[in-house]
Amino acid sequence: MAANKLHLLGWLFIVGWLNAAAGSASAQPITPAPDGTNTVVTPNGNRYDISGGSLGG
Fold first, then answer.
1. Which of 24, 27, 42, 48 is deepest in the core (most CB within 10 A)?
2. CA nearest 40: which of 24, 19, 54?
3. Residue 1: predicted pLDDT
4. Strand partners, 42
5. Quick one: pLDDT at residue 50?
6. What is the pLDDT of residue 43?
7. pLDDT digits over 7-19, tens only?
8. What is the tens place of the pLDDT at every residue in 21-53?
9. Rounded CA gap, 15 and 32, in Å?
10. Residue 22, Cβ neighbours under 10 Å: how many?
11. Alpha carbons 44 and 38: distance in angstroms, whole number
């Protein structure tokens, strides 16, 4: 019985530590560059559709 509780506490500690270590994600806005590539960024719900433009390089 005590071994089961110790095992459970171990797993809870590991899961809690992983959750704390994961942190949170941060996002930056996506905007077309004003460089004449004609890129169009269209918000569509929780995603952005990016069309047009040309590859850099």
1. 48
2. 54
3. 64
4. 49
5. 87
6. 87
7. 888 888 888 888 8
8. 777 777 777 666 777 788 888 888 988 888 888
9. 40
10. 8
11. 19
Q: Where are the domains of the chain?
A: 2-52
Residue that the structure tokens 């996506």 belong to = 30
d(CA 21, CA 19): 6
Give the pLDDT score at 57: 64
Neighbours of 39 (CB within 10 A): 16
Place of tokens 């719900």: 45
Residue 52 one-letter amino acid: G
Q: Is the Cβ–Cβ distance between 40 and 51 less than 8 Å?
A: yes
Q: What is the rounded distance in angstroms from the CA atom of residue 38 to the CA atom of residue 20?
A: 42
34, 33, 51: which is closest to 42 by C-alpha?
51
